[in-house]
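[job 4471] stage=fold_predict status=RUNNING
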Amino acid sequence: MPPPGAPVEEMLVARFRSHARRLFWSALVLICVCGVTAYFYGNLRAPFEDWMLLAGAAVTVLLLVVVPYVAWISRTYTITTRRVIVREGLGSRRRRELSHTRGYSIAVRRGLLQRIWGAGTITLSNGVDAPLRLLNVPSVNLVHEALADQVEVNQILAHRDAHSVEPLAER
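[job 4471] inference complete, writing structure tokens
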């Protein structure tokens, strides 16, 4: 523990994305499109040509594989020793932060499929700002414990610093 009043270095506790199970259907579509394209390439009937097959496969992969992957990869959750950060977007970024020092309530919601996969949705609410939702968090119980520990440690440090010994100049 740092001495009272000393600045505390911010360290990374965890960085993660939402659970990758939502990419299951995209992976299945990619496998099926590759199989169907390979089967029909060179075997199309008269009015159709191979370039049409390839264009259709490319559009399907773009819409059903690439777009969901980019949407999944564009959201990152970061937990540090001082705050929780949610970053969204690729080109234009949206960033929300919630400080551990202010304290917040932690609510965990898990549906049936989330329970099977060990995931869940965590909602952090400090009563002032809009609640911060971490969607489909993998290993939700571990993340919940890490957040609770960080809130407790930061509130202890803030309380200690607020009630620390009088400054050296006044002694």
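[job 4471] summary: The longest helix spans residues 50-73.
[job 4471] exit 0
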